[in-house]
């Protein structure tokens, strides 16, 4: 049995937590602000840092200090898209990296979307990567609220669905949830109910004390004892902790939090007249700052190729370039984009990488690299991956399909166009492998979920028949064979 010391009991003996049992049965921590929840989570993370992979969903940036001591990777979400966070979640499982998802610098809406995308990426990792991982979610009531708040319903559903998957279906995938909340009454019941281990700290509201007493199997008249707990003291119960409710005082930690506790400082006596002059001092109009001289950045590789193309020495080469540019047709650019799509692993490379490859090929052939902007390049890529020929690009039916696709998230537009092209040509519905390749993933289960998502968005209608899957496009009636 691999146990770690969590703290000391009333009699001074060590209170341990069975780590394998915790990974199988999950943990719920509850306590009012200042009860010591973050200290408890830090103690648990420090004691298990070398034993199991860890992922921390950190809304306040309190746990980023673990990186200095234990080598955790800190992921700041402010510069990341939902698609990149979803992919990062899948890669974290593949490489067994311990990470801290820092949500400190983004607003509540983005916190829900970022955590939901990251957890969904972890949940959808291939079976070969289902290694044990301890997933700690601080302030879980923000990510699995029992009622809607200031955030959009879409963001709340995304985050709540990810938290539900973590606590209800994560065990078979090796994902062990440890969730901490200030108030049980604000946490979704289907998320809290899946935990088998409990650590209940100081709380004062009757409804929270009653729920805590019910979870610990205590009598209602004993619920008021939660008010008497000191900071850092918790009532423990569960197969990984104790068979009967037991009070534990959490042990010391080695790392510190980024947040600071309030400290009383004596006020320095200052005459009120001096304060008046300081506080009501007239505002001075600030003169505009002088512009700093802009330095020309060093040219990148593509810029160097451009410069090389404009300084060719022989008139014959210049003549060849100009004639090539004047005779350039959109169909020729289409063929160049098609060549990019046919390179090895092109389906799994970011759009920016493919676009840079296209620009490089264009300059090698003497074509200006701005001959196709990024938006048009993405349109060509999506149409080519859907199996379309250039002659049909401007047809009325395909423009209708693109109009629907523009209303969908960028990562799903290619999947929809693939289905639309199959329906227009009355071909069978694309296989899971084809959908996964267009979506840019190796997971067939993830590909199937994209069809369900498109159906939820009312873009398609999926019908399972004895002869296979059939899909119809909403609004136009196009159907696959």
From TrEMBL:
The record's annotation in PANTHER family points to: HELICASE MJ1565-RELATED
Q: Which organism is it from?
A: Swingsia samuiensis
Q: Which Pfam families match?
A: DUF87
Q: Can you name this protein?
A: ATP-binding protein
AAA+ ATPase domain segment(s): 23-213
Q: What keywords were assigned to this record?
A: ATP-binding, Nucleotide-binding
SMART domains tied to this protein: AAA (SM00382)
The molecular function terms in GO held by this entry are:
ATP binding
Entry's InterPro entries?
Answer: AAA+_ATPase, ATPase_Atu1862_pred, HerA-like, HerA_central, P-loop_NTPase
């Amino acid at each position: 049995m691999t146990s770690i010391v969590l703290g000391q009991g009333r009699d001074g003996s060590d209170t341990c937590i069975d780590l394998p049992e915790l990974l199988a049965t999950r943990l719920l921590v509850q306590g009012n602000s200042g009860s010591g929840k973050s200290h408890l989570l830090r103690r648990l993370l420090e004691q298990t840092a070398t034993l199991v992979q860890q992922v921390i969903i950190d809304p306040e940036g309190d746990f980023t200090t673990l990186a200095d001591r234990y080598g955790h990777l800190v992921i700041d979400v402010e510069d990341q898209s939902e698609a990149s966070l979803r992919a990062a979640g899948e890669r974290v499982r593949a490489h067994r990296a311990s990470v801290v998802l820092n949500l400190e610098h983004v607003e509540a809406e983005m916190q829900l979307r970022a955590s939901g995308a990251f957890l969904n990426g972890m949940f959808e990792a291939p079976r070969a990567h289902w290694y044990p991982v301890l997933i700690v979610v601080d302030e879980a009531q923000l990510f699995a609220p029992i009622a809607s708040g200031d955030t959009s319903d879409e963001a709340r559903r995304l985050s709540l669905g990810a938290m539900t998957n973590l606590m209800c279906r994560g065990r078979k995938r090796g994902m062990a949830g440890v969730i901490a909340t200030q108030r049980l009454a604000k946490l979704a019941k289907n998320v809290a109910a899946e935990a088998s281990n409990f650590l209940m700290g100081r709380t004062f509201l009757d409804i929270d004390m009653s729920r805590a007493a019910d979870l610990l199997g205590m009598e209602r008249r004993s619920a008021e004892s939660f008010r008497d707990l000191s900071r850092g003291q918790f009532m423990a119960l569960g197969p990984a902790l104790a068979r009967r409710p037991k009070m534990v005082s959490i042990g010391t930690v080695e790392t510190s939090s980024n947040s600071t506790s309030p400290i009383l400082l004596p006020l320095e006596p200052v005459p009120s007249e001096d304060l008046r002059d300081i506080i009501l001092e007239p505002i001075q109009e600030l003169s505009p700052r002088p512009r700093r001289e802009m330095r020309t950045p060093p040219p990148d590789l593509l810029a160097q190729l451009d410069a090389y193309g404009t300084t060719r020495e022989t008139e014959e080469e210049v003549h060849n370039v100009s004639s090539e540019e004047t005779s350039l047709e959109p169909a020729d650019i289409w063929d160049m984009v098609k060549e990019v799509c046919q390179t090895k692993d092109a389906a799994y490379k970011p759009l920016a990488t493919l676009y840079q490859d296209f620009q490089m090929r264009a300059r090698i052939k003497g074509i200006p690299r701005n001959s196709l902007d990024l938006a048009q390049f993405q349109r060509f890529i999506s149409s080519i991956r859907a199996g379309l020929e250039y002659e049909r690009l401007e047809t009325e039916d395909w423009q209708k399909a693109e109009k629907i696709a523009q209303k969908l998230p960028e990562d799903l537009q290619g999947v929809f166009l693939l289905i639309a092209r199959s329906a227009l040509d009355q071909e069978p519905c694309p296989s899971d492998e084809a959908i996964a390749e267009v979506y840019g993933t190796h997971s067939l289960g993830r590909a199937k979920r994209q069809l369900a998502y498109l159906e939820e968005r009312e873009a398609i209608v999926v019908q399972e028949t004895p002869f296979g899957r059939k899909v119809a496009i909403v609004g136009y009636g196009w159907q696959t064979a």
